[in-house]
Design goal:
By secondary structure, the chain is of the alpha/beta class. It has 13 helices and twelve strands. The strands form three sheets. Strands 2-1-3-4-5-11 form a six-stranded parallel beta sheet, covered by helices on one side. Strands 7-6-8-9 form a four-stranded parallel beta sheet, with helices on both faces. Helix 9 links the parallel strand 6 and strand 7. Helix 1 packs across helix 3 and helix 8 runs parallel beside helix 9. The chain starts with 5 loop residues before the first helix and ends in an 11-residue tail after the last strand.
Length: 339
């Protein structure tokens, strides 16, 4: 059978080609009954619009880019799924591109990616979302963008993030209420804005409870298992070791559990451990890890929808969004016991 055309849809629905185009582009100035007739005709005819043809007609590529540099596969998977959901719904393709932020040529990589693909817009994840050089480049290239994460408000583009600082305060507060006073913290990668926000939440909670911050209880983990493993060995070899360790993601929390097991430190009675992200590893290992559930898929869906709406309106002045996170209390935390 020949592939159905826009003319076939228009004839079947009893409308003009222009009206069908308006429905395809989700324009608001179409009566609900007319829109439904067009959608029904498209379904009956199994009509699938050609994005290439749409691009020629509107000077758009109907292509959105997503760039990332993050070793956490579960994080990236959720972000990708959320973006794909929005792009599919809005009739866009998604180009997913990993880039090395530390390579020294990421600005050139982004420039060539945008120009070569002729993408309509770009979704930035940390650490790209907080780099002023990248934001200025996209403004120069006249490409709309949205930022996932990031620490500051920027009127050039929507900003969609989680309440990292607030939820980290709540996690630390939870540990204090369990009875912990010697609470260590393993930071994430310094280029990621979430790392500093989570650390600030931890510091604020200690201050709220009148607990002093001890430098020997703070280590760098870089969001990576191997680096966090080294950090955990340092923390657990202290003469007065912590009774609880808050790691900035679940991979690092799992590294703490490994080191504790190797040193015959019982979890959670001799050491409480908590993480961040609610990654699969937090649920699959034992003891399961107390952690923070980020609505990553919802964040990504929102970011991509805001970008596409901004492209349609030819405006980036759309609202910022902050999503609430949730504590997931599991078996790796308890009141402090004897060493």
């Amino acid at each position: 059978m020949a592939r159905a055309t826009i003319n076939d849809v228009a004839n079947s629905a009893g409308v003009s080609k222009k009206t069908v185009s308006r429905v395809l582009n989700q324009e608001a100035n179409v009566h609900l009954d007319t829109r439904q007739r067009v959608l029904d005709a498209m379904e009956q005819l199994n009509y699938r619009p050609s994005k290439q043809a749409r691009g020629l007609a509107t000077t758009r590529s109907y292509l959105i880019g997503l760039i990332y540099d993050n070793p956490n596969k579960s994080y990236i998977s959720e972000i990708q799924e959320g973006c794909l959901e929005s792009c599919t719904k809005m009739g866009y393709h998604l180009l997913i591109q990993p880039l090395n932020y530390q390579s020294g040529k990421c600005l050139d990589d982004i420039r060539y990616l945008v120009i070569d693909s002729q993408m309509d817009g770009l979704i930035l994840t940390p650490p790209f979302s907080d780099d002023e050089r990248i934001l200025a480049l996209l403004e120069e290239l006249k490409r709309p963008f949205t930022r996932i994460g990031g620490t500051y408000h920027d009127t050039r583009a929507p900003h969609v993030t989680a309440n990292d600082k607030k939820i980290s305060f709540q996690m630390t507060d939870y540990l204090v209420h369990l009875g912990h006073k010697r609470i260590a913290f393993i930071k994430g990668h310094r280029d990621h804005s979430a790392s500093e926000l989570r650390y600030c939440g931890y510091l604020n909670a200690l201050e709220e409870h009148g607990l002093s911050v001890q430098e020997q209880y703070v280590e760098e983990g870089g969001f990576e298992f191997q680096q966090a493993e080294k950090a955990a060995r340092k923390l657990l070899s202290l003469k007065e070791r912590p009774t609880a360790i808050f790691a900035s993601n679940d991979q690092m929390a799992a590294a703490v559990l490994k080191v504790a097991e190797q040193n015959d430190i019982e979890i959670p009675h001799q050491l409480s451990v908590c993480g961040f992200d609610d990654a699969p590893i937090s649920r699959y290992i034992w003891p399961s890890i107390t952690t923070v559930r980020q609505p990553l898929r919802d964040i990504a869906t929102c970011a991509s929808l805001e970008l596409i709406q901004g492209i349609k309106k030819n405006s980036g002045s759309l609202p910022d969004h902050t999503f609430d996170c949730e504590l997931k209390i599991r078996a790796s935390t308890a009141p402090p016991g004897r060493r």
